[in-house]
Amino acid sequence: RTNPLVLGMETSCDETGIGIVRGTTLLSNTIASSMDEHARYGGVVPEVAARAHLEELVPAIRAATAEAGISLDEIDAVAVTSGPGLSGALMVGVGAAKALAVALGKPVYAVNHLVGHVGADLLRTEDDQTDAPLEYPTIALLVSGGHTSLLLVRDLVSDVELLGETIDDAAGEAFDKVARILGLPYPGGPQIDRVALVGNPAAIRFPRGLSQTKDMARHRYDFSFSGLKTSVARWVEQRQDASEPVPIADVAASFREAVVDILLTKAVAACVDFEVPRLLLGGGVIANARLRQVAAERTDAAGIALRIPPLSLCTDNGAMIAALGAQLIMAGHEPSALDFGADSTLPV
Ligand code: KG4
Ligand code: ZN
């Protein structure tokens, strides 16, 4: 089946995403976020996220079909994130996707959220089909508030290998926690980026987790950010205990430098080790200005082609899920049996 019309649903975290694609052409990408409701807790509250999905899903479906200029009965299939993510949040999307598919008499495809992030790179708009398509193999570095993962993608629908992931906090979570330590509002990533502009990234040498020789045998492609966060907290406390001012810009810039360094050191190492001259970035942390800059510098120096989809396709969204669903259909995969569940730790 060529160029199927697919509606994708994404509810694994705090974004209610509905996207509609025809093959690799993006027709609409509607996102409602419950971010504001989580702000006062300093992080995503699972039940609040699930309840918001329940309220937002149908309006988002209506908005997405209107924007795409289609009616629901035209779609060929529904694709939905079945994991990994927050269980309650996932269950709302999975339930809604099954209900929609059954009501329309159309197949449903359960897909993996992380693989969906890679699928985002396939999408082109109707008036711009010029960009080169996703090429294989590629290394993918996915960094958001919920995940920090390094994948080796030989084929999107049949051969994706998880090389490593965070063993504690996600990178975005570390940005959010450090922002809180510095008295900056949630979400912390954009705030740290902003204050770091005038800071000195070499002012404080914060630790790079899992990069010592002793860690590298077991955790070559894994990440750890909780030690870094604790180290920032301790540094700030010592200043406060001594009644000295905290140089917020320097702390933010030095922290950001440590995160960016560790992410790209490991991503470039994976490209070199597996002789893969391509690196794809995805996830909300890709908005980070310093991360984008250092990624460009280091991939350039190593002869690696860098791919970064537009930010609206990097953050969690339904279009990437629809794109992956369309690939599964075009590769001849069978739809999911209707008794599939939500799996918060779904492997790639
Ligand atoms: O992919 P995303 O929108 O959603 C989920 O994780 O669900 O990512 C949000 C995360 C938050 O932790 C936020 O602080 C981080 O991405 N983030 C950033 C920046 N913008 C957003 N982190 C670092 N620098 C940024 N400019
Ligand atoms: Zn994500």
Number of helices: 12
Q: Report the average pLDDT across residues.
A: 96
**Sheet bearing the most strands, described?**
6 strands, mixed
- The CATH level-2 architecture of the largest domain is identified as 2-Layer Sandwich
Give helix % range. 40-55%
Strand order of the largest sheet: 5-4-1-2-3-6
Order of helices and strands: EEEHHEHEHEEEEHHHHHEHEHH
Q: How would you describe the shape? A: globular
Spell out which ligands are present: 5'-O-[(R)-(carboxyoxy)(hydroxy)phosphoryl]adenosine, zinc ion
Q: Could you list the spans in which at least 5 consecutive residues all have pLDDT below 50?
A: none
Highest-level CATH class of the largest domain? Alpha Beta
Percent strand: 15-25%
Q: How far apart are the termini?
A: 24 Å
